[in-house]
Write a structure and sequence with these properties.
This is Zinc ribbon domain-containing protein. The chain is mainly α. The protein is built from 4 helices and 3 strands. It has 2 domains: 31 residues, no CATH class; 65 residues, no CATH class. Bound molecules: zinc ion (ZN).
Length: 103
Amino acid sequence: MTREEAVKFAEHAVNITGISEVKEFYRMAAVALTPPTQEQVEKVWRGEWINTNNEVEQMCKCSKCGYPISYFWSRTQFCPNCGAPMTDEAVGMVMERWEELHG
Ligand SMILES: [Zn+2]
């Protein structure tokens, strides 16, 4: 059984049982087995470089962990400290990685 088939099975099973605990179990299983959408990845994991614009050297910091980085080095795809994806491309790479791990 593939993950997709397991999700379909769990979603179908919710409707064919009358036992509320079993319904709840299949509902939770379907949610746990469903990969995150691009929107969810963006909302939960995506960070951005915030320009803190301090004194002499322009600095940025990661919106997720506050890691400071020089503005000139802040074009990285991922935060070097917490690994948050910072660009559309990086979010895409996270989605691909997830599919590889769980697909
Ligand atoms: Zn970070």
